[in-house]
């Protein structure tokens, strides 16, 4: 497997208290993404963090924040 075949279908997304959304990062597994989201969420800021999968094969498979 080379770098061009690696997929990172799991996003961590942050939403601030003004409703603006930002991609924090892309990850290979849901567990990895959830670990990051939980770590950021535990800091106690007002931002909301969640994990979302990008559908690689079907319609709407694009990054929702691009």
From TrEMBL:
Residues 11-43 form the SPOR domain. InterPro entries: SPOR-like_dom (IPR007730), SPOR-like_sf (IPR036680). This is SPOR domain-containing protein.
